[in-house]
Amino acid sequence: MKKDFLAVADFTPEELNDFINLAIDLKKEYFQHGNQPLLKGKVLALIFSKPSLRTRISFEMGMRHLGGDALFISPNEIGLGKRESIADVARVLSGYVQGIMARVFEHQHVVELAKWADIPVINGLSDYNHPCQAMADILTIKEEFGTLPGLNVTYVGDGNNVAVSLMHVCAKLGVNFSIASPEDYDMPETAITVARTFAAESKASLHFYRDPHEAVKNANVIYTDTWTSMGQEEEAQKRERVFPPYQVNQALLKEAHANAIVMHCLPAHRGQEITDQVADGAQSRLFPQAHNRLHAQKAIVLRLMQDQ
Ligand code: CP
Ligand code: NVA
After folding, report:
1. DSSP-derived secondary structure for 18-43
2. Would the pLDDT of 75 be above 90?
3. 274 in helix, strand or coil?
4. Which position among 133, 247, 272, 297 bears the catalytic label?
5. Known catalytic residue: 170?
6. Are 256 and 280 in contact (CB under 8 A)?
7. Rounded distance, CA 258 to CA 283, Å?
8. What's the DSSP call for residue 49?
9. How much is the pTM?
10. Could you say which of 65, 285, 293, 295 is catalytic?
11. Rounded to the nearest whole angstrom, what is the distance from the C-alpha of residue 40 to the centroid of ligand 1?
12. Is 187 helix (H, G, I), strand (E, B) or coil?
């Protein structure tokens, strides 16, 4: 298995299923018996170049549950690639801690960290992808429906980092994936090309739409995310003019399966990409999904750090 968790695309379907099953076991164990010191004495450094609620707290709590510790490093501190080169940061931290989680702007920065660190590096979101989110998402979907192959997941909105990882985990695990995004806001072509190879292996289908109404037909899961990701703030006004037809609201939800669930990685911009009625409605799984970040990531840190 890879030393680092930079992309779901780097793992085989068997490895991804192992992460999911381990997360299910760890979750059950935690609710039945509490903490388990499986990473006793191990420390994960958390480097953040952007803000976070879920990623920071779920990694911190996950390490505590496993008897280890986490060390938060704020955006103002190490100045990744500015105050000091990424290669030097990676080599210094490798002597202090047993793992690094990093949230960065440029995806290349986590790749560079992983290249130079002797210890595992976990991608906590980059401009290209958000693999820890995708693992919590697929865990949530499996818990809901019991099995993954053949389900239909539809993402509505910006073809962003969250969409890329979701598409890849679906394509790896035989889950049919559709996306409806406006022109000029498609996912990167390279991400689509690799997804096609995974989908061919797993027999998943991939569909790309402009019309959200067409895309949600037969959906078991409707997924959305912010129209403006961190780092794109200067485009916010333009995006707010383009994206309103892609709002996940009650009318759109009615066009999916009657038992469809709604997901969002959060933070949500209520009234923009999702309405209160849907976010707080009976079909919403927004909070179980956020809580599953904890359990999915405990499986990731355990597999990566247990031998460090
Ligand atoms: N979904 C997610 O990664 O949330 P945070 O930005 O709060 O970590
Ligand atoms: N696409 C969003 C996800 C936040 C968790 C962003 O990158 O800001």
Report:
1. HHHHHHHHHHHHHHHH----TTTT-E
2. no
3. strand
4. 133
5. no
6. no
7. 9
8. S
9. 0.97
10. 293
11. 26
12. coil
Contact 107, 127 (CB under 8 A): yes
Q: How far is the CA of 125 from the centre of ligand 1 (A)?
A: 8
Q: 212 has which bridge partners?
A: none
Name residues contacting ligand 1 (CB within 6 A). Answer: 52-55, 125, 133, 265-267
Q: Mean per-residue pLDDT for 12-28? A: 98
Contact 103, 51 (CB under 8 A): no
Please, are residues 185 and 212 in contact by the beta-carbon 8 Å criterion? Answer: no
Write down all domains in the chain, each with its CATH number in brackets.
8-130+293-305 (3.40.50.1370), 133-289 (3.40.50.1370)
From 56, 130, 168, 239, active-site residue: 130
Per-residue pLDDT tens digits for 119-157: 999 999 999 999 999 999 999 999 999 999 999 999 999
